[in-house]
Amino acid sequence: MCCLIAIMVLLGPRLAAVVWWFVDTNRWSAAFSSLWWPLLGVLFLPWTLLAYVAVSPGGFVGFDWFWVVLGFIFDLGSYSGGSQKKRWL
Fold this sequence. Notes:
mainly alpha
């Protein structure tokens, strides 16, 4: 888990998702039944995908939805954060 966090910090969530998929394919198979959803998740919503894969194999119970929503907020922030910064310059 430590290595996964280091990869996310240094190289980004997309590469972390690809590495995690190669390392722990059973978790990804339990989370998704086809390859399309993970592929679309890596391309468009990588933080949401990572949060979903982290909590989904055990089922969504209570606080688990918080992590998925937080990942979605990170994704939205990564898409819109640059425009706010450029506007003030």
